[in-house]
Amino acid sequence: MVRPTKCSVKSIGATYGVIRRQLLAADLQCTTLKECAKASGLLHQLKVRTLLDLPCGDFHWLSKIDLPVEHYIGADIVPELVARTNSLHSRPDRTFLQIDLCNDPLPAADLLLCRDCFVHLSEDMIDLAINNILRSNIRYLLTTTFPAGRNRPIRTGDFFSINLCAPPYNFPPPIKVLDDYVPSYEPHQLALWEVESLHNIRRDPPAYAGGPR
Ligand SMILES: C[S@@+](CC[C@H](N)C(=O)[O-])C[C@H]1O[C@@H](n2cnc3c(N)ncnc32)[C@H](O)[C@@H]1O
Asked: Fewer C-beta within 10 Å: the chain N or C terminus?
């Protein structure tokens, strides 16, 4: 089983720091907040009681939204982020945990929000993460996908525009999509699936065997 080494956890943290600085551009902040508000409306529609936000990063965007859920669980692989979100944002209805999406058992939840994560993982790690989600007791998956994205091999910590409906992932059409980008960026969405509907998808063999990890 591929577990991230201490070094790769560190590089994930470093990459994330760079991303956060880019995201602080005002137009992006505004759009992301709008998208979070839309996601919050969707949680209400789906009657989500327990939300698992994995990865939650620094909880920056969602801390600004009054989430319509009974219990929010934010989790991330980077221990420093978890310690920080815990000290700044934990409440009786909010828990922050250190969880590796690829290898750790996932807490039961009505919906897993997995925003901007697969885009930074190698194909092996995405496989582990999807299999982990399929083993979990989670009803819905709301995650980032690029409708015209091009799946390609990357090393964990780099970036690619993942298209979950194209090979090798072959997800069915999502139940619902929320746009999650500003006009100058490549269109991408938060797309919703019932986890149950992902059990029988035709999963192509790793297209990039021997490629970057
Ligand atoms: C681009 S950030 C997205 C954070 C948040 N979802 C957001 O939209 O702001 C990517 C996050 O994924 C986390 N991460 C990367 N690999 C992970 C893994 N295997 N398990 C859990 N978190 C992971 C990183 O630590 C980082 O916080």
From this structure: N
pLDDT of residue 203: 75
Best of 59, 120, 213 to mutate for ligand 1, by most ligand atoms within 8 A of CB? 120
Residue with tokens 């919703």: 192
Q: Is the pTM of this model over 0.85?
A: yes
Inside any domain, residue 205: no
Which sign, positive or negative, has the C-alpha torsion 121, 127, 133, 136?
negative
Judge whether 212 lies within some domain. Answer: no
Domain that holds residue 85: 8-198
Candidate from 77, 96, 178, 188 with most ligand 1 atoms within 8 A of CB, to mutate: 77
Q: Is 77 in the pocket of ligand 1 (CB under 6 A)?
A: yes
Taking a C-beta distance cutoff of 8 angstroms, is the pair 168, 206 a contact? yes
Strand partners, 76: 98
- Residue with CA nearest ligand 1 atom 17: 77
Looking at the structure of the chain, the number of domains it has is: 1
Q: How confident is the model at residue 19 (pLDDT cuts 50, 70, 90)?
A: very low
Look at residue 211 and tell me if it is in a domain: no
Listed in sequence order, the residues at least 6 apart from 60 whose beta carbon sits closer than 8 Å to its beta carbon are 20
User: Does residue 41 belong to any structural domain of this protein?
Assistant: yes
6 pLDDT band, cuts 50/70/90, is very low
Which CATH number is 12's domain given?
3.40.50.150
196 pLDDT above the threshold of 50: yes
